[in-house]
């Protein structure tokens, strides 16, 4: 019980270095590194600063996932490709060794089903698609969106389920989401108190139940980076997640169950 008690009470042991503590992830599949297209990095200098921080943590590969949210972040595959090309050029110019891919984080809103039906999604390799809901209210379309994605050959991943406060007293909903064929992605900072005690409790409950399939930094800015460094200095995150089948390192291996060609 000491390990779990430390998560709630704080680890008083001598601090350890954060260097390479997240190397086991291989890929960070959720972040907002692409410059100037959402509430993440505003320019390439900020992007490069966060990438340097990821490399310090041992992460040398990233799927950048800018928001697509109707009326707020009206990104398209074209706008995302443009920001990606801008960041790729900056990496090349600075001779930065970092493998960068791009996709998106899709808000479940009135526009998403149209994008699915019209084949306008910017998905990850092997047809993974990251989806999210509002933090304020549950989306009644969640299960229909999961079904629509699956019918088009995509594998949905629900971002940071632990952050949806309206589910905190309804653990069965997470089982229902998993049973519907949707995978779950943990925000690493959720296992600290970064988003609040209730989010932390929900995250640890899901971890204990072995419910998570992926982890991500959801990094937007340097505050997230510094908090991540503090987190991995205090806790052995890989050990914490040992009961979860975390797939980050293998998710882009050739998957014969996904035959749709991804750009």
Automatic annotation (TrEMBL):
Cross-referenced Gene3D superfamilies: Metal-dependent hydrolases
Catalytic class of the enzyme: hydrolase
Q: Name the Enzyme Commission number(s) assigned to this protein.
A: 3.1.3.48
Which reaction(s) does the protein catalyse, per the Swiss-Prot or TrEMBL entry?
Answer: O-phospho-L-tyrosyl-[protein] + H2O = L-tyrosyl-[protein] + phosphate
- One Pfam family assigned to this protein is CpsB_CapC
Could you tell me the keywords of this UniProt record?
Hydrolase
Output the Gene Ontology terms for molecular function: manganese ion binding; protein tyrosine phosphatase activity
Q: Where does the UniProt annotation place the signal sequence? A: none
Q: Which family does it belong to?
A: Belongs to the metallo-dependent hydrolases superfamily. CpsB/CapC family.
- Put simply, this protein is called protein-tyrosine-phosphatase
Organism in which the protein naturally occurs: Sphingobacterium humi
What is this organism's lineage? Answer: Bacteria, Pseudomonadati, Bacteroidota, Sphingobacteriia, Sphingobacteriales
């Amino acid at each position: 019980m000491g390990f779990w008690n430390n998560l709630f009470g704080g680890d008083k042991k001598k601090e350890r270095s954060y260097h390479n503590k997240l190397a086991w992830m291989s890929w960070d599949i959720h972040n907002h590194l692409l410059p100037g297209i959402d509430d993440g990095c505003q320019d390439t200098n900020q992007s490069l600063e966060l990438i340097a921080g990821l490399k310090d943590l041992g992460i040398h590969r990233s799927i950048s996932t800018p928001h697509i949210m109707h009326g707020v972040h009206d990104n398209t595959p074209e706008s995302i490709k443009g920001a990606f090309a801008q960041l790729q050029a900056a990496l090349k110019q600075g001779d930065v060794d970092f493998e960068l891919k791009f996709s998106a984080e899709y808000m479940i809103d009135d526009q998403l089903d149209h994008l699915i039906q019209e084949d306008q999604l910017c998905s990850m390799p092997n047809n993974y698609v990251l989806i999210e809901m509002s933090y304020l209210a549950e989306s009644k379309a969640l299960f229909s969106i999961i079904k629509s994605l699956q019918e088009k050959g995509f594998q949905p991943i629900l971002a940071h389920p632990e952050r949806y406060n309206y589910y905190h007293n309804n653990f069965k909903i997470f089982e229902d989401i998993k049973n519907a064929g949707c995978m779950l992605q943990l925000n690493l900072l959720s296992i600290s108190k970064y988003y609040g005690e209730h989010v932390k409790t929900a995250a640890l409950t899901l971890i204990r139940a072995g419910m998570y399939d992926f982890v991500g930094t959801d990094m937007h800015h340097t505050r997230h980076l510094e908090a991540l460094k503090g987190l991995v200095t205090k806790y052995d995150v890989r050990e914490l997640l040992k009961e979860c089948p975390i797939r980050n390192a293998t998710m882009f291996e050739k998957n014969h169950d996904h035959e749709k060609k991804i750009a």
